[in-house]
Design goal:
The protein has 154 residues and is mainly α. Helices cover 38% and strands 6% of the residues. It is built from 2 helices and 4 strands; from the N terminus they run H-H-E-E-E-E. The protein is elongated, with a radius of gyration of 27 Å.
């Protein structure tokens, strides 16, 4: 039995409709994927900030309780962020160091292990570090979050 050309396959109109439907669905998926990726990066940023702030607070607790000898001008806070990774010598311990972080985390917004730092003596809105100690950390990203706030203000 011989088939006619009309029965052999799809028409151009059918292919155009299917292509249009695929384009519309793709157009709907792309913003959702972008939003999801950005939301995941924001969750990661909040986690990394919390991790470092907890390490700074724990260092301060050790210093206030006398387990870490205080350094002049640091107010009991770590002198730099790397101190949390390298560890601090505990009073009464010969070779023991207390480490507070395994490594300095990567900022998910800038993709670098670099963070803005504030000293206890600095103004809370300051963007320059006074270098006396590390009282707080923030992202160096100038971007805005999904909720409209700046990442550097977190």
């Amino acid at each position: 039995m011989k088939r006619s050309a009309r029965q052999a396959g799809f028409t151009v109109v059918e292919l155009a409709v299917v292509a249009a439907m695929i384009a519309i669905l793709t157009g709907m998926v792309v913003p959702v994927v972008r939003y999801t990726v950005k939301r995941q990066d924001e969750l990661e940023l909040r986690f990394q900030l919390r991790l470092m702030r907890d390490a700074i607070d724990k260092y301060k607790q050790y210093s206030d309780s006398g387990l870490i000898p205080p350094q002049l001008g640091t107010e009991g806070y770590p002198p730099e962020l790397q101190t949390l990774v390298d560890g601090a010598k505990l009073v009464g311990q010969i070779d023991k160091k207390q480490k507070f972080l395994r490594r300095i985390p990567v900022d998910p917004m800038t993709k670098k292990p670099e963070w803005g730092l504030r000293s206890y003596q600095d103004d809370p809105k300051s963007t320059s570090w006074g270098s006396q100690n590390v009282y707080d950390v923030y992202s160096l990203s100038s971007g805005r979050a999904i909720d409209g706030t700046y990442y550097k203000d977190w």
